[in-house]
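Private note to self, pasted from the team thread so I don't lose it. C-alpha cells:
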C-alpha cells in the first residue's frame, strides 16, 4: 500500500493542519536499541514546531552513485525522566504524518545520527535507512557484517568422489548457508591447489558440528573446472550465493531473520539479513512488479548472481553498488521501499507526473551542462560471457562525441553479475544498454525547481513531463520553451512546513 488518496489529495490543499509522530523501532533478537518509544505532538515530550526536512534518495547519472538522504526534526521536553535507550545513536525510527486529523501515513524512516540542543529543545538528525545498513542492525559484535559466515572453512573428513557418492562429509557444516529458493554454493580446493565451485541442496548433521552436504553439481559458473574428487583434509569454503531479481535480493536482505517470520521475503539465513523487525508492508511489492516493466527482458527473468566468499565489510552497500552499475537502486517512496532504474526519458515506459508553471514557485538553478557529469563517451558498452566463458561486448555508440572532455568508451563488466542463463547475459545487457546509453553518450541539463508539495510522493528515477512558458534549454528553438519536456527525477527534498518540494531533474 502507498499513501491513501485522502493524504495525497491533501498535499494539493492550500490549507492544512499537520501532526507528527516519531516511532522508534523496538527490540529484536539482534537489535537492542530503540525501545519502541513513540513521540507525538503532545505529552511530556513532543514534536516541536521546527521545520521538518526530508531528503529522499539522490542519484547521479552515468556513474549512478546514490545518496540515500535522511530527515531532521525537533522535539521539545526533558529527556532525563524517559527511557533514553530510544535515543541511542544508531536507533531506527519512523516518521509519521497526519494531515487534517485523518489517518497518519509513514513519510520517512532513518537511523539516528545526532542529537543536539539544550533547555528542552532537541534537534534530531537521521540518516537514510539504506545508508544505515553499512552493517547489520545488530548489537552483537560478532554478527555485525552481512554474510558473517562467508569465507569460513571446513575440512573434508571422508574421501569424496562425485561419480560414486554425492555426499561430501565435512568437519563443520554449520557454517554453510543458502537461500531457501536456490541451491547453495561452496568453493573447494584439493591438495594440488586446484579450485572449483560445487552446488549443494541439503545438509545433514552426523556428529555435531560435523555432517555432510548433498552435492548436486561439480561444475558451477563462474568456475570452469570440473573437479570431481577430493581427499581428506582438503579445504571447503563457505560462499554466500545471492540469486534472483535485484529488487527481490534487496528485499530479502532487508527482511530476513532466519526464522521465516517477517513476511514473504524472510527466506534468507539470519546472517544475510538486516537483523531488525520491520513491518512486512514496508516493501511495496505491487509497485515493484509494476516498475519491472522498465527493465524486464523479452524472455525469461532478469536475474543476477552475487557471490560472497568473505563477509561484506560495506554491508548492503556491497550489493547495492553492484546494482548501481546497472542503473538500479532502492528508494523510499510514499513510505514504502520501492525499486527504480535509470531510464531513457524519451523511451520511458510511463510518465509519472506532469509539471506546469502553476506548480513551479521558483527556479533554484539550471545547469545546461550538469557539473555532476565529468565526461561524455563515444561508446556505451557492457561486457558479458557465455556459460563456456566466451566474452561478448554489447555496445551503443556515436560516430562523433557530443561534448568535451570525452572518453572513447564506458565499459561495464557484468560477466560476474548477470545470471549466466534464462536468458543469456547478452539479453540482459541489451535491456540495460537501452536505459543507460543516453546518459553515457549525451550531455544532460540539471534543473532544480521549487514546487508544490503534491510531488512529495515521487522518487528518484521517476519520469516527469515539464511544460513551462519560461524554462528552456539549447534544444528548444528560438522563442520556444519546454513543452512536455521529459526529465528524470534525480532527487527530492520535502519541506512540509513550507508546503514545498525541491526537485532536481536530469534532462538529456
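Design output:
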Amino acid at each position: 500500500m502507498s499513501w491513501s488518496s485522502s493524504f495525497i489529495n491533501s498535499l494539493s490543499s492550500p490549507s492544512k493542519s499537520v501532526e507528527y509522530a516519531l516511532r522508534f523501532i523496538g527490540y529484536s533478537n539482534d537489535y537492542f536499541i530503540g525501545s519502541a518509544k513513540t513521540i507525538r505532538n503532545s505529552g511530556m515530550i513532543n514534536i516541536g514546531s521546527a521545520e521538518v526536512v526530508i531528503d529522499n534518495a539522490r542519484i547521479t547519472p552515468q556513474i549512478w552513485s546514490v545518496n540515500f538522504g535522511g530527515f531532521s526534526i525537533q522535539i521539545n521536553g526533558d529527556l532525563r525522566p524517559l527511557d533514553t535507550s530510544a535515543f541511542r545513536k544508531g536507533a531506527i525510527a519512523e516518521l509519521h504524518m497526519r494531515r487534517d486529523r485523518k489517518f497518519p501515513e509513514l513519510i520517512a524512516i532513518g537511523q539516528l545520527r545526532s542529537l543536539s540542543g539544550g533547555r528542552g529543545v532537541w534537534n534530531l538528525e537521521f540518516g537514510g535507512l539504506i545508508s544505515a545498513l553499512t552493517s547489520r542492525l545488530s548489537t552483537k559484535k560478532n554478527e555485525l557484517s552481512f554474510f558473517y559466515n562467508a569465507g569460513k572453512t571446513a575440512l573434508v573428513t571422508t574421501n569424496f568422489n562425485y561419480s560414486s557418492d554425492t555426499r561430501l562429509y565435512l568437519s563443520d557444516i554449520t557454517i554453510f548457508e543458502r537461500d531457501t529458493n536456490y541451491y547453495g554454493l561452496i568453493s573447494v580446493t584439493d591438495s594440488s591447489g586446484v579450485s572449483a565451485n560445487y552446488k549443494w541442496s541439503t545438509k545433514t548433521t552426523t556428529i555435531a558440528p560435523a555432517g555432510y552436504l548433498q552435492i548436486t553439481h561439480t561444475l558451477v559458473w563462474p568456475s570452469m573446472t570440473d573437479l570431481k574428487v577430493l581427499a581428506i583434509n582438503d579445504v571447503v569454503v563457505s560462499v554466500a550465493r545471492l540469486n534472483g531479481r535485484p529488487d527481490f535480493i534487496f528485499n530479502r536482505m532487508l527482511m530476513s531473520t532466519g526464522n521465516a517470520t517477517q513476511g514473504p521475503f524472510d527466506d534468507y539465513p539470519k546472517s544475510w539479513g538486516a537483523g531488525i523487525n520491520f513491518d512486512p508492508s514496508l516493501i511495496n511489492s505491487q509497485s515493484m512488479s509494476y516498475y519491472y516493466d522498465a527493465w524486464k527482458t523479452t524472455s525469461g527473468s532478469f536475474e543476477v548472481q552475487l557471490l560472497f566468499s568473505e563477509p561484506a565489510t560495506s554491508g548492503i552497500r556491497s550489493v547495492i553498488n553492484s546494482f548501481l552499475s546497472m542503473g538500479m537502486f532502492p528508494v523510499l517512496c510514499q513510505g514504502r521501499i520501492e525499486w527504480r532504474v535509470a531510464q531513457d526519458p524519451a523511451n520511458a515506459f510511463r510518465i509519472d507526473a506532469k509539471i506546469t508553471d502553476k506548480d513551479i514557485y521558483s527556479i533554484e538553478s539550471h545547469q545546461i551542462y550538469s557539473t555532476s557529469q565529468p565526461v561524455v563517451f563515444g561508446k556505451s558498452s557492457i561486457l558479458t560471457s557465455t556459460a563456456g566463458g566466451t566474452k561478448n561486448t554489447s555496445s551503443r555508440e556515436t560516430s562523433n562525441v557530443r561534448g568535451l572532455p570525452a572518453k572513447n568508451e564506458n565499459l561495464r563488466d557484468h560477466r560476474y553479475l548477470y545470471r549466466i542463463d534464462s536468458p543469456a547475459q547478452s539479453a540482459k545487457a541489451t535491456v540495460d544498454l537501452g536505459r543507460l546509453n543516453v546518459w553515457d553518450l549525451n550531455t544532460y541539463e540539471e534543473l532544480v525547481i521549487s514546487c508544490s508539495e503534491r510531488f512529495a510522493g515521487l522518487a528518484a528515477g521517476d519520469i516527469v513531463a515539464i511544460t513551462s512558458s519560461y524554462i528552456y534549454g539549447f534544444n528548444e528553438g528560438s522563442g520556444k520553451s519546454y513543452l512536455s519536456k521529459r526529465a528524470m527525477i534525480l532527487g527530492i527534498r520535502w519541506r512540509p512546513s513550507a508546503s514545498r518540494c525541491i526537485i532536481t531533474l536530469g534532462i538529456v
